[in-house]
Structure prediction request, 501 residues.
Amino acid sequence: MKKIVNYLAPALSLAAIVFSVAALNKTHAATSTSPMTNNVAEISATQAVQPVDLTYAAEKALPSVVYIKSVVNSKIQTVEVQSDPFEDFFSDPFGGFFGRGQRGQGGTRKQQIQTPKRAAAGSGVIISTDGYIVTNNHVVDGADELTVSLSDNKEYSARVIGADKTTDLALIKIDARNLPAITIANSDNVKVGEWVLAIGNPLGLNNTVTAGIISAKARTLGANGVESFIQTDAAINQGNSGGALVNANGELVGINAMLYSQTGSNIGYGFAIPTMMMNKVVDDLKKYGTVQRAMIGISGTDVKNYVDSEKDKGNEVDLGTMEGIYVAEVVENSAAAEVGIEKGDVITEVDGQKVTKFGDLSGIIAQKRPGDKVTLTYLHNKKKQTKQVTLRNEQGNTKVVKNADLDVLGADFREVTKAQKEQLEIQYGLEVIKVNNGKMKEAGVPRGFIIQRVNDEPMKTVDDLQNAVKTASTSKEPVLIIKGIFPTGKRGYYVVQLTNE
Prediction:
């Protein structure tokens, strides 16, 4: 369970952000009255006790929420530990002179340890009858095994279709048919004060339902890269991560992701990723294997936050409004720069939709793809301007970004042998055993070169290299900085460009 310390507002103390779940209500919020109720006063009293009947929502949504168990298997890792001079002397009085020791510099030595097998649990939501399930990225991240348990206790092994750390969403799949898929509602239509249900598996208590209301919309917490959370006061705890936030119709409006708490248990608020953002991420993962993230090319903050910070410095600021997004920086060669947006401008509308805080802007743009056009209304020197902007990807163009595979390198690799480790005095590496036509040949990487680090990450297995290629291919700078060693012992590096520019 991930915990992050942050401030929610000046009125709140330091709180731990913990993964969570929550839920909403709607038309089946029927008033509960007793057959014996005969007058208005008695009806009002009954309504005060239970303003809505959420039993329909619970019955409809519960079968769609699953329990996810993730397992990280035990592994052998090489770590540096502080040397004990007496232990080192008696175990090797010649200080490794004859090559027996593996001491590092500065009083450290390398030691192999076996990490323990670890298991964790979370929740997920069935979104299609053929086995697609949405959960949080942090529920499945790094897992070697995933087991999904349905509400009828049937168990299935699951595989990850795709994951997105920036929104903390993941799509997994089980081999099953005729599953009870949840109905997905438009999260843009939820209203503050609306009743919701949080459904998940908190603290090992499977199929748990709690009720609350929508406390706020478009919240940003600084925990993920892209945020526009639905905030709820429905009780959520560890294990609720990836579960369902549903309305009174039993329709999904959010995927619960975290909670604010001073203790790690529910005493605060929960936060859910809205379905309109979820739908876009799921579609991209299915179609492209990675999220097609659109960008305006600005950084900034809520106008009120900016004005308050300037006042704290003794500065008086008049931007012409107290609502909107203050532009603190414009990225060079971005969509915003192309149409003339400048630092100090205030964005007030996107496609005619009012944006009062950064979460509003994030929520709208998160539903777009590079190449989409949006109309921005903003204040420049307190004067209203309207411009159409073509959104771009992180690499500054409108092309589809896809996860590159090892095939793009045009080479074959294998882990270094024990003999190579001893001869070159290295602990790990990947030997280039064959170079064909591809990016490695273009960069001049020769056969026999041993790759040890790529973009400052250690390369111990071919999977490590595969992950490095995938990560770099969708980044702002799609390049691999490869460092390693030649068979002669000489060290070197290469720069491999993954694009065709």
About this structure: The first strand starts at residue 4 and ends at 6.
